[in-house]
Design brief:
Length: about 550
């Protein structure tokens, strides 16, 4: 429609121009003057006016070749101008559409193309100026936006979270919908909140540290400052405070220890030693009023007549006490523990709380009891002693063969003979301690019940081949019924079964079962990584189950 309007406009213009030229003059021009006028308009690129003059000249001389050629050239120029206008308006239309879509840089390209055709077109020049101004403003906004985002990035990296939040907020005011900047803003905001919480905790611990320091609770103060330092490990001031507090704590602890020692000696009336201890405290905290006051009190006491009499009486008591102790020791050397006990009792009458006398009295009582028990042991029948020795011998044999379960069984029988000899109990303790110390895998950390004909599989990492030959499986288990339970223990690697063992779980509670699994070749040669437990004829409770090794 727009192109059609242009053609009609041009046609009317041509007709008007022709009419004007023909009828505007009262006098009919000559052929030559018409041609001259046509040439002048042609030179001025006024092709429509030139065309009119050439046509009028040809009316006068229709066969004039020169006029015909000039008219043809002029018509060609008119056609060319029409094509240029068509191309011009096509560029303008494209540019206008791009401009309305806010594709400003592409629109500017189209307006520039139009201006190459008609460089002085005011509409195209105006649009170009407008877009150039907009793009300039946009570039300035973009540069400002990028600068704020870049500064925000640097501040965020420097952990200046509050400042980074401000920069990102400012950037979003320029481009509110920029998703990348929104994400950075949220990240900075989250980190600022976390940092603010961290600072709050930091200040709280520091406040606690100051309060404890004022109350001279140095251990608690150091702990509070150390918690603060964990939040900001590079804080040099805190490091210095902690170092100073540690020095003060060492002084305080040293002082407190010496004062405690001195007070105890004072309460025990060991005044000379107490005075030395108070002086030692003064070497730590000079001019301490408490230590000085106690030294003055000691001097007053030791210089009094009453104290000197007390010291004389104490010296006699010490001599009598030492005499009874010496007599008791002499009786002990003769194995006369009854007489020794009587002397130690007399010594305790003089000094009831004396640790040495109490220890000697207890030892004498133990030896008297031991002598009585020893006499009973000598009265055991030869058959009972022989039974005990037999069990111990068998236990030792099994122990040396690393058959620890059987060794425990024989040592237990030896204990049941009740000779009082601690040897079998000690051997059992050694076995259990060794296996517990050398634990490799805890298969059952908490008690578990396995019902009859059920299978429980336990998986674990393969044991190092270097220690497999010395492996034992230790089980503490109970039969939950009224009869022993036969329990199968199968082992393997992945989908492959490599071997099994059978154990008997007695009815009594917490039975220790020890199996030398390392003696089986398939345990040693394969990377076994699972064990299955299957009780055949009753329910069992597995209290604990471990893979261990001997020394």
């Amino acid at each position: 429609m727009r192109n059609l309007t242009r053609y009609i406009f041009l046609l009317v213009l041509i007709i008007c121009a022709s009419t004007t030229c023909v009828y505007a003059q009262d006098n009919t021009p000559s052929f030559q003057s018409l041609v001259v006028s046509g040439d002048k308009e042609y030179a001025n690129k006024e092709y429509i006016k030139a065309k009119t003059y050439y046509q009028e000249a040809l009316r006068l001389k229709p066969d004039n070749t020169s006029a015909k050629n000039k008219l043809n050239n002029t018509l060609q120029k008119i056609r060319e101008e029409s094509q240029k206008e068509e191309q011009f308006f096509e560029f303008i239309d494209n540019a206008d559409q791009l401009y309305s879509n806010n594709e400003l840089e592409k629109a500017l390209e189209e307006y520039n193309k139009a201006l190459k055709i008609f460089p002085k077109d005011e509409y195209a020049l105006g649009k170009k100026s407008e877009i150039t101004s907009i793009l300039k403003d946009e570039k300035e906004r973009l540069d400002a936006f990028n600068e704020m985002v870049a500064l925000g990035d640097r501040l965020l990296q420097a952990e200046k979270f509050a400042e980074a939040v401000v920069q990102y907020e400012s950037a979003l005011k320029v481009y509110p919908n920029n998703s990348a900047t929104k994400a950075k803003y949220q990240d900075a905001k989250n980190k600022k909140e976390a940092y603010d919480t961290k600072v709050s905790e930091f200040e709280r611990f520091k406040s606690q540290g100051r309060e404890f320091t004022l109350r001279k609770k140095y251990t608690e103060a150091i702990s509070s400052y150390e918690q603060a330092l964990q939040l900001f490990p590079q804080d040099k001031e805190l490091q210095g405070i902690i170092s100073e507090l540690q020095t003060q704590k060492n002084i305080s602890d040293n002082y407190d220890a010496k004062i405690t020692e001195a007070d105890a000696l004072y309460e025990d009336r060991s005044y000379a030693m107490a005075k030395e201890a108070y002086n030692a405290a003064l070497s730590v905290v000079p001019d301490d009023s408490y230590a000085l006051g106690m030294i003055n009190r000691i001097d007053e006491i030791t210089n009094s007549t009453e104290y000197k009499k007390i010291q004389s009486d104490k010296a006699k008591l010490d001599r009598d006490f030492a005499n009874y102790i010496n007599k008791g020791e002499s009786a002990e050397s003769q194995n006369d523990y009854a007489s020794a006990l009587s002397y130690y009792v007399k010594a305790l009458e003089l000094k009831p709380n004396n640790a040495e006398a109490n220890a000697k009295k207890k030892n004498a009582e133990d030896m008297i009891m031991y002598q009585k028990e020893h006499r009973k042991e000598q009265e055991l029948s030869a058959a009972l002693e022989g039974e005990y020795n037999n069990y111990v011998t068998q236990g030792d044999t099994q122990f040396n063969s690393k058959n620890y379960e059987k060794a425990i069984e024989f040592y237990t029988k030896a204990i049941n003979v009740n000779t009082g000899n601690p040897y079998p109990s000690e051997k059992i303790r050694q076995i259990r301690e060794m296996l517990a110390t050398n634990k490799l895998v805890e298969l059952v950390p908490n008690a578990v019940t396995i019902n009859i004909n059920e299978t429980k599989r336990i998986e674990f990492q393969p044991i190092d081949i270097a220690v497999r030959r010395s492996n034992f499986i230790t089980i503490r288990a109970n039969s939950l019924g009224e009869k022993p339970v036969i329990m199968f223990i199968t082992y393997g690697s992945n989908a492959k079964e490599n071997g099994s063992i059978t154990v008997r779980v007695p009815v009594k509670s917490d039975n220790d079962i020890i199996v030398h699994i390392g003696s089986q070749y398939k345990w040693f040669s394969e990377d076994n990584n699972w064990i299955e437990i299957y009780p055949e004829n009753g329910n069992v409770q597995i209290v604990s189950m471990e893979i261990t090794k001997d020394n």
